[in-house]
Amino acid sequence: MIKFDYGNADVSVIGQEHGLNLAQEFDQYKDRIASIIADLNKRKDKPEQWLQWMNLGYNEETVWYVKEYASMVRGRFDNILVLGIGGSALGGIAITEALLKPYWNLLTPEQRDNYPRIFFLDNIDPDSMTALLDMLDLKRTLVNVITKSGSTAETMSQFMIVKDRLEKELGEDEYRKNVVATTDKQTGVLRQIAEQEGYKTFVVPDDVGGRFSVFSAVGLLPIALVGLDIDDIMNGIKDMDLALKNTDIHENIAAQGALIQYLMDVKKGKNLSVMMPYSSRLRYVSDWYVQLWAESLGKSTDKDGNHVHVGPTPIKALGATDQHSQFQLFNEGPNDKIITFIRVGEFDKTLEIPRIFEYTGIGYLGGKTINDLINAEADSTRVSLSDYERPTVTITIPKVDGYSIAQLLYMLEVQTAIAGELYNIDTFSQPGVEQAKNYTYALMGRAGYEDSASILQSKIAMR
Ligand code: PA5
Predict the structure, then answer these.
(1) Residue 219 in contact with ligand 1 by CB distance below 6 A
(2) How many CA atoms lie within 13 A of 77 on its CB side?
(3) Per-residue pLDDT for 157 more than 90?
(4) Which of 10, 105, 158, 456 lies 20 to 30 Å from 166 when distance is taken between CA atoms?
(5) Is the shortest distance between the CB of 433 and ligand 1 below 6 Å?
(6) Could you report the per-residue pLDDT of 323-359, keeping only the tens digit for each?
């Protein structure tokens, strides 16, 4: 299991002004936390609670269909091209970057066991899109278009371009075999198109928001298509889910994480939440976390209708790289952050530093390993931050494998849900995102958005 260490957020280490008296706080919040956990688990099976993500670890049917499809298309494609944005892309990116051999797309087919390369197109930059589409042999590319709503302008415009190119290269009938759509089971434009065109489809389940969808077909299908073991992932979620059903805050790491983040914000003014893995393979876990935390907790009103404008701002950082970038600020700038380190117990490889240049000032490095170095840097950074009375917590995963990554992401999802309850906000809505989407529809001339379009045009002219 993954471990959570919160000692460096405690008064005993970083002092009264910036630390929390965690024994006292856990005691004071234990009933509230217990009732939040019990309530989430009670509501998770009910419709419209947006808690179906808590059941995804048990969705054997989806796993079966995903595996069946992945084995059916095995060997037919050299590339997987995922089209999606936000929650429809970030989970897949985080997991494939963590679990595939590093630099996967640069490896030979043999080095990849003949599994395809994978590309996520999660932005609409015309230059990079054109470059990617020109580079890929579309005949040998399986396009997985993912959008829960089925109408997100970025994703659907990408798809229109890709479909057009595919059809030109493969012909009206054949091109369909190169498309698999992941979308709502009934509604949305992509569902309509998929039915009309006869695409293979997978479902984004009801009551699962984009940022909580990584363990549905949204994340599982791309993961399986490149040969990653999704059983390991499912086992990780299930074991973590079981552990996080414990209503005792002393035993529940997601509850501990949520309470510490919440209290650091509301009591100690630390409204910036830094996610800093000490592993390049976990770099995109931070991107995923940033979306999860920001979209879930950044809300203008609470559940009672009060204007609250809450939400700690998530920040991504990477160890050791950011020690040479953001760290000056983290150590000596405003004491307004809580930093979460992610540590890896055991790296896959051990990389020795040769005993050379012994006559110079870098001779001391010889005979050590890069593993020693990254671990020493993580330890020294944590201690240095605590010297400056800066709170940190540390999540340690035993290894970068499917089981641990699933545990980590699921734990962070539950932590977010519990934090949302502590803030008393609706964790699962995203009115701010919807507003921006609607403005885009209006500006791009979507039917039904004409009134907003003219208001927007005049605002754009004025501002
Ligand atoms: O978490 C969310 O709900 C959003 O980030 C969505 O995932 C994102 O806007 C993409 O939406 P869709 O999957 O409908 O294309």
Answers:
(1) no
(2) 29
(3) yes
(4) 105
(5) yes
(6) 999 999 999 999 999 999 999 999 999 999 999 999 9
Residue 48: what are its φ and ψ, rounded to 5°? 60, 20
CB contact at 8 A, 338 and 9: yes
Residue of 254, 273, 277, 382 whose CA lies nearest to 338: 273
Most ligand 1 atoms within 8 A of CB, residue of 433, 439, 440, 441 to mutate: 433
Q: Which of 154, 295, 413, 421 is catalytic?
A: 295
The letter for the amino acid at 169 is E
Angle (CA) 100-149-146 rounded to 5° is 25
Helical pair 90-99 and 402-423, crossing angle rounded to 10 deg:
150
d(CA 152, CA 207): 18
**Is residue 207 packed enough to be buried (19+ CB in 10 Å), middle (13-18) or exposed (0-12)?**
middle
Instruction: Please say whether the beta carbons of 330 and 341 come within 8 A.
Output: no
3-state secondary structure 108-150: CCCCCCCCCEEEEECCCCHHHHHHHHHHCCHHHEEEEEEECCC
86 touches ligand 1 (CB under 6 Å) = yes
Pair 69, 221: CB distance under 8 Å: yes
The interaxial angle of helices 60-73 and 217-225, nearest 10 deg, is: 30
Strand partners, 120: 82
CB of 152 closer than 6 angstroms to any ligand 1 atom: yes
Q: Whose CA is nearest to atom 9 of ligand 1?
A: 86
155 pocket-lining for ligand 1 (C-beta < 6 Å) = yes
**What is the average per-residue pLDDT within 359-365?**
97
Q: Which atom of ligand 1 is nearest to the CA of 218?
A: 13
**Ligand 1 centroid to residue 437 C-alpha, Å:** 10
How many Å separate Cα 379 from the centre of its chain? 25
Does 437 qualify as catalytic in the annotation?
Answer: yes
C-alpha dist (Å) from residue 314 to 114, 293, 296, 297, 440: 38, 7, 11, 10, 25
* Mean local confidence (pLDDT), 436-454: 82
Q: Name the residue among 32, 89, 45, 135 with its Cα closest to residue 423.
A: 32
The rounded Å distance from CA 229 to ligand 1 centre is 26
